[in-house]
From TrEMBL:
Glutamine amidotransferase domain location: 52-194
Gene source species: Mycolicibacterium chubuense (strain NBB4)
SUPFAM superfamilies: Class I glutamine amidotransferase-like
Protein name: GMP synthase family protein
One Gene Ontology cellular component annotation held by this UniProt entry: cytosol
CDD domains per the UniProt record, alphabetical: GATase1_1
Domain of life: Bacteria
PANTHER family: GLUTAMINE AMIDOTRANSFERASE YLR126C-RELATED (PTHR42695:SF5)
Length: 247
């Protein structure tokens, strides 16, 4: 009996970044094309998702922010947000395995009533993540160092979580680097799929998206290569191993 695949939801409209993200998700999760199916929400509607057919759902990052000015959101962004809101409501209700990477903090945070705003943005590059007590006992994070480096870069973040939501990690400038809803629904502000080569690819693709001054792209790459980022990928691998199941 074959394993039920995982579903990757991509919100990257740019082929180079989207394809690099897909390859990284497969590599670090230990999955292949048969076990990680991708839907590019920028290219097609989500359509019905029968959760029983999947081992879990992974949401990748991208240039969308739920806190963007509503008047400035494109029709595609509004459609994607509406589709994700409906799916996340079902995922939360069923406590279905979910891992949202970066954009997941905004979308999952909005779904549970977290405060999502621009108060705790972080620049593109490496950030030192610190586990909370709840993080140190969480199945996906337990055994990782109390502090480790990860790659990220975001305009919005969760400033506060509702009561009963487990805050798993933080950083110096961002109080919520990871959280868990129920037992199986996760979001990370950092990117668990991102190594230095992937970060450099995204710096090239998104250098005109307002994350940093375009002329600083090379210095950001140089700074990233001076950091050792290996632990976040373990979270992605554990997610795939923990929730893989047979159809």
């Amino acid at each position: 009996m074959a394993d039920a695949p995982f579903l990757l939801l991509s919100v990257r409209g740019e082929d180079e970044a989207a394809d690099d993200e897909y390859r990284a998700m497969m590599r670090f999760a230990g999955l292949d094309h048969e076990r990680l199916h991708r839907i590019r929400l920028t290219h097609q509607p989500l359509g019905p998702v029968a959760l029983a057919e999947w081992s879990g759902v992974i949401l990748g990052g991208g240039p969308y922010n739920v806190s963007d000015d509503p008047d400035g959101k494109s029709p595609t962004q509004r459609r994607v947000e509406d589709e994700l809101a409906g799916l996340l409501a079902e995922i939360i209700a069923r406590d279905f395995p979910f891992l949202g990477c970066c954009y997941g903090v905004g979308t999952l945070g909005a779904a549970i009533g977290a405060v999502v705003d621009r108060a705790h943005s972080e620049p593109v590059g490496a950030v030192t993540v610190a586990l909370t007590a709840q993080g140190r006992s969480d199945p996906l994070f337990a055994g990782l160092p109390d502090t480790f480096d990860a790659f990220g870069g975001h305009k919005e973040a969760a400033s506060a979580l509702p009561h009963g939501v487990a805050r798993l990690a933080r950083s110096a400038d961002c109080p919520v680097q990871a959280f868990r809803v129920g037992a199986n629904v996760y979001a990370t502000q950092f990117h668990p799929e991102l190594d230095v080569d992937g970060l450099c690819t995204r710096i090239d693709v998104y250098k005109n998206h307002g994350y940093f001054a375009p002329e600083t792209a090379q210095s950001l790459k140089d700074a990233a290569r001076r950091r050792v980022v290996t632990h976040p990928m373990e979270i992605l691998r554990r997610f795939a191993q923990r929730y893989a199941r047979s159809n």
